[in-house]
Design brief:
two-stranded antiparallel ribbon, 294 residues, alpha/beta, seven-stranded mixed beta sheet
Length: 294
């Protein structure tokens, strides 16, 4: 039982009971792993800094285990679930909570700006998600790139993905994801979560990471789209020099000679690799390429 005397799902027995009652089968394509550890659930709510004033958008509620905790701590929760078969379960497990709303659909197809408008008067929202690992990056990037009003995004991800989001230049985890996340947010790992905290058990360890959205991007750049094309090009072929990465990119219209000239004008060594550049240096190079293009 929870604080409020409501039946909580945060135990293996409860979860199995609910799944059996509804004859639920896990779907590999949705990467479903349900949390069964109350300590981890408390840590997620704490990491997300949820208060009784907050509206929370939850992505991938599953059977509602984390949703119940979010409902107890926030003003309102909107849970978006892609799997139609989970909707009747959610309606049942969340029925005691008057502040829970459920939408069946793909989060990548929702108008999140409209959600913020409807549920939070357009003010920045808090997003919480226990995401299937293969879809983590597209969802996080869409949230950031669409410039919807966000306060923070707290996600459970594979530990190595959390490490990549936080990574610094020159480290083996540093890459396009590190730069993209750090352009929009300050990442902070709040908890490490072993596989035995889930049903079914995943093969890898997980981490809860909070991304505190920045009011202003840490660098000024003349063409944001070009900046990200440049970042992707430089990590697509990690072992190649930055010059070759730019020249070989299908997204960028620059020849090897032009790439070499831009790198030189930006003040970098001709043989430098993308993994050595900080965000500010990528922005400088992007601005040089904008000048050359015009």
């Amino acid at each position: 039982m929870g604080k409020s005397g409501k039946e909580k799902l945060s135990s293996p027995q409860q979860t199995i009971q609910v799944l059996q009652k509804h004859n639920f089968n896990f779907k590999k394509k949705f990467g479903q792993n349900f949390l069964i550890d109350p300590h981890v659930l408390d840590k997620i709510v704490e990491a997300a800094q949820i208060t009784s004033e907050d509206f929370v958008l939850e992505i991938g509620p599953g059977i509602g285990t984390l949703t119940q905790y979010l409902c107890e701590h926030s003003r309102q929760v909107l849970a978006v679930e892609i799997d139609k078969n989970l909707i009747p379960i959610l309606k049942e497990t969340l029925s005691p909570y008057g502040n829970a709303h459920i939408i069946q659909g793909d989060i990548l197809k929702q108008d999140i700006e409209q959600i913020a408008e409807t549920y939070n008067d357009g003010k920045p929202i808090k997003v919480v998600a226990n995401l299937p690992y293969y879809i983590t990056t597209p969802i996080i990037m869409q949230l950031f790139e669409s410039h919807v009003p966000l306060a923070n995004v707290t996600v459970m991800v594979q530990k190595e993905v959390a490490d990549r989001m936080k990574a610094e230049p020159g480290s083996k985890d540093y890459g396009a994801l590190s730069l993209a996340v750090q352009y929009y947010a300050l990442p902070c790992i709040a908890a490490l979560v072993p596989p035995n905290c889930f049903i079914p058990r995943p093969n890898v360890g997980s981490a809860v990471i909070r991304l505190d959205c920045l009011a202003k991007t840490p660098v000024e750049v003349r063409d944001e789209k070009l900046l990200f094309q440049l970042i992707r090009a430089s990590f697509n072929q990690r072992r190649k020099t930055l010059q070759n990465g730019i020249a070989n990119s299908a997204e960028l219209p620059f020849s090897k000679a032009q790439a070499a000239e831009a790198i030189s004008r930006a003040g970098f060594d001709a043989g430098i690799r993308g993994e050595k550049l900080k965000l500010q240096e990528f922005a400088r190079l992007a601005d040089v390429l904008v000048e050359m293009r015009s």
